[in-house]
Every structure is written in structure tokens, then in C-alpha cells.
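Action item from last week, closing it out:
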Amino acid sequence: YFEVGCHSHGELNLLPEVFRKLSEEFPLVRPSVRVVPFPSLLGLVENRKLYAAFHIRDSQRKSVLYFKKLADVPIACVCSGEHPLAQHESLTEEMLRGKLVAGTPRQIPNGVLAVQNRLLAGLSPEETYITENRETALTLVRAGLGYTLCPDVAFAREADLRYIPVRDLPSLEFGIYYRYDEKHPMLRRFLAICGERAGM
């Protein structure tokens, strides 16, 4: 078995081609994927419950894990095509207006959480929706109830939503965490194939 993790269903879009190539080279491989909230995901890799996990780089985290960067990704405002912010090609933090569909620390990385908390400080309870997972947040966004913020990982985008970069926010690094001492024969190929697919 070769089990990897991610924290949103959008990230699963990278894996069909990666697993196809891996199974061509290793016909006996039995790939598996677990979708796990942010705080738990890296612990599963550290404790050898997963071989690797897609994640946003956490510079504050000290662990036995290595990080392979796949892409620099902007923080984006995600909204429906009818939302007032959808008319813009890019935004600044100051331009972010209206009701906010906010996530919990279990579903968004620290870099996005910091921006979200600044925005929440200026909003009333009537202007905010707190959601428990990414899919719920995007459902409210699709309904036109507000916008949300997320790292804009290109292959994880939902086709019916607008992803507008917030240009005055620092970009984040998206990649794969894995144990430096992991000797699984397929891990090195998995990392290489993911890098090829992401153009890194």
C-alpha cells in the first residue's frame, strides 16, 4: 500500500495521472488517499500513517519532515461570478468588502488564517459565516452569500468560481511533506512525478 494525504477534495485532481504513472512503473502498487484537516495531516506523516501529504509550507513547524515545493501560490479571493468582487482581475486586502465565508484553523493554513482574522475584526457577526470544511465554504460562496480566501492551487480550482489574487499578500509555498528517513521505494518516484505534473 502507498497512502498519501491531502486536506481538500480539490487537491485530489493532481492524483489520477500521478497514480496512473506510478502503477505503470510499480504494477503491484495499491495507492490510497486520505482527506484530513490541516492540524492532523502532518502528524500522520510524522507517525508513519501516511507516506506523504500535500500541504502549504509551515515555516514555524519543526519536525522530522522534508518539504518538496511544487508551486508558489497566491492567496486568492474566491467568489461566485455574480459577486461584486468578481469584476476585478486582482485585489488588495483593502478592497476585500462584503460578507466573509470564514474557515476554522482545521481547514485553512496559517498564512490565510492571519489575513482572515484581520478581516473578521472589522466585520459584524451578521457579515460572517463560519464553516467547518472547505466544501461547505465553497457551497456558501456558490450561493452568493459571500467570498472566502484560500491558497490558489491551480489544479485544485473549482471551475464555476472566480479566483482573484490578492496582490499585496505574500504568496505561499504548496508542496509535499514526507519523512526524511522514509525508504519506501515508490516515494522517490511519487515525488518526482508530482514535480513533473506541477512543472517544478
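Closing note: The CA atoms of residues 70 and 195 lie 6 Å apart.
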